[in-house]
Design brief:
Layout (H helix, E strand, L loop, with lengths): L2 H25 L1 H6 L12 H33 L27
Amino acid sequence: MSRDAVTGGGCAVSFAGAVGAVVVWWQTSRTQRHLGNEFENNGQDFGAVLTELPFVFLAGAVVPAVVWGLGAWLLGRRRRPESSEPSEPSEPSEPSEPSGVSEFHA
C-alpha cells in the first residue's frame, strides 16, 4: 500500500468519524433535552453545545485516525522481512581518489 493511500484513507476515516460522532451526539436524548425539546423549552441550555460539541468533534476525528495509523503501522511491520541472523560486517573499502587530485584544493 502506498504512503498516499494510507494518508488519504486516514483522512477519510477521520472525517467520517468526526461527522458520525456529531450526528450520534446530536441524536441523543440528553442533547435534545439541552437544546430545548422539552415542554415550552424548559431546560434549554446552549452551554452544553458550546462545551460538548468541540470535544465530540475532536474525539470523533482523533480516535479513528489513531486506530487507522496503528493498523497501518502494524501491517507495515508485518510485511517487512525481519532477519533473525545478524549480517556479517563487510570489509571497509578504501576511498578511491582520482590520481593527481587532492581533497584540499582551491
